[in-house]
Amino acid sequence: MAPNLGGSVTISAISVLENRRNAEPSNKLNTLSLLFDAHLYLGDSQGLASLRFFNADNLTFEDVEPCFIIANIARTPSDVKGIASTGVSTDDYDLVGDIIQLIPIGMDTNTNLRNRPFITISGSVDRVDDNTFSLSPEQYIASCKDLSSKPSMPAKCWVPETPRWKNRAPKVKAGTYISVGGFMSGIERDDKQCITNFLIEVEKVTFLGRAPVAPRAVEGSLETPIKQNGKGLKFDYNSPSPLPGKRRRLEAESSSSSLSVVSEPSQ
Q1: Which residues of the chain have pLDDT under 70?
Q2: DSSP per residue over 144-161, as a string?
Q3: What pLDDT, on the 0 to 100 scale, is given for residue 108?
Q4: Which of these, 54, 97, 194, 250, is most buried using a 10 Å CB contact count?
Q5: How far apart are CA 177 and CA 173, in angstroms?
Q6: What is the tens place of the pLDDT at every residue in 82-128?
Q7: Quick one: pLDDT at residue 163?
Q8: 13 HSE (CA, 13 A, CB side)
Q9: What is the per-residue DSSP string for 91-140?
Q10: In this structure, which long-range contacts are made by residues 260-266, counting pairs with CB atoms below 8 Å and at least 24 apart in sequence?
Q11: Phi and psi dihedrals of 200, rounded to 5?
């Protein structure tokens, strides 16, 4: 097994959040730190994560709120405390993590909630078997800050047998340091129902290494002048009201429609 050199794991997903609560109920001054129970669609199964979010913009949330999220994640340690909501056991959580970005979607949309999460994982390869390889990087998670070691993210990455990878599957070796991107497709458990691996369907592999030359200091000003969009483009963030007519039409449509969840996954 290759030595653990540390790494990182991020998830990008449409998740349904519920059970909003104060992440640190004993600290009345820190009312912006929230915990959510986050549901994740995994195709034939589903996962549950306890995710922490610093609500700097004082966003308001419904009791059940679909959101697009990006978060740092790890497997839930068995000895972590204070992450579970009322009526839910710590053992019910597959993942624990910190939300980096959160965009509420709202219930009054036609967004398909059955989309598998996309995982980006970087670390040293532990093992290689046929068309699979495994990583288990560790990283800091706020809810686990009092534990003696950082939580890990054991991942078994598999290369699907598709024309895309025919005759050019990535040549991964144990001990190499890589970054992998792919869709989470399931969770492996042992006889005691403890998580052994998160299954990742590989979309991309990047081999990482040292830079060939030392980084060079940036010269001159770091300020970037504001660039106006060309005449052939309709949208511009600098406009005081970009696409107002389109927004009004969408709002009118959403007010007269209800959430529609497609029965088949799009990924």
Answers
A1: 1-5, 25-30, 210-230, 241-267
A2: GTTSSS--B--EEEE---
A3: 74
A4: 97
A5: 9
A6: 999 999 999 999 999 999 999 999 877 788 999 999 999 999 999 99
A7: 79
A8: 30
A9: GG-SEEEEEEEEEE--SSS------PPEEEEEEEEEEEETTEEEE--B--
A10: 260/110, 261/112, 261/113, 261/114, 262/112, 262/114, 263/114, 264/114, 265/41, 265/43, 265/114, 265/115, 265/116, 266/112, 266/114, 266/115
A11: -120, 120
**Distances in whole angstroms, Cα of residue 114 to Cα of each of 26, 42, 226, 263:** 36, 8, 39, 8
User: What are the structure tokens assigned to 91, written together?
Assistant: 């053992």
C-alpha span between 250 and 169 (Å, rounded): 43
Of 119, 116, 121, the residue nearest 136 (C-alpha)? 121
Burial of 146 (0-12, 13-18, 19+ CB in 10 A): exposed
Model confidence, pTM: 0.80
Length of the chain counted residue by residue: 267
The first and second tokens of residue 248, run together, are 């009004």
Q: What is the Cα–Cα distance from 77 to 152, expressed in whole angstroms?
A: 8
Q: Are strands 155-158 and 195-207 parallel, antiparallel or unpaired?
A: parallel
pLDDT at 63: 93
